[in-house]
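User: I'm curious what two different proteins look like when written out as structure tokens. Can you demonstrate?

Assistant: Sure. I'll show them one after the other, since each token string lines up with its own sequence. Here's the first protein:
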Amino acid sequence: MAFELHEPAPDLVCSARGCRSGAAHALRWNNPRLHTPERRKTWLACDEHREHLSAHLQVRGFLREVEAVEAAPLAASQRTA
């Protein structure tokens, strides 16, 4: 999806499949088999999906920290689904 320079940046939305709600939480994670210990990938979560997405990552041992979106500015390259 390409954006024109005059268009506003898209809102940060929840990473849960099919959810278009605004993100309130940044779930920082990494896969230790693939990523160096300091590397963090980010999933965004609304209040409704925070626990579900956190549990998905936690069960696999990937979840590192959860922060409020306001406290965790995201570069475009950090927003992953």
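Here's a second, unrelated protein for contrast:
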Amino acid sequence: MVTGLGIITFRLHDCRSLKSKRKVVKSIISRLCNNFNVSVAEVGANDIYQRAEIGFALVGNNRKVINSKIDKIFNLADELGLAEIIDSEMEIINL
């Protein structure tokens, strides 16, 4: 079993309230879930208006496939244009 984990940190330039932040974060999460069938959630910076941390997890049986999907997730998150990616982390665990 191969597990892929990732965290993407975004800067949200136009957000002035938590309500506007939640709208952007919810949009990013739903797009990632719909396109890749991964588990996605906001995992940090919950009370900071202009910053969001989104984590995701994948499970599979092939390390190359998991690595490829993680790269595609990072690319889609960047291409959405809803927020600027300021940091990203990934880890692949073989069990």
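A detail about the second structure: The chain is about 40% helix and 40% strand.
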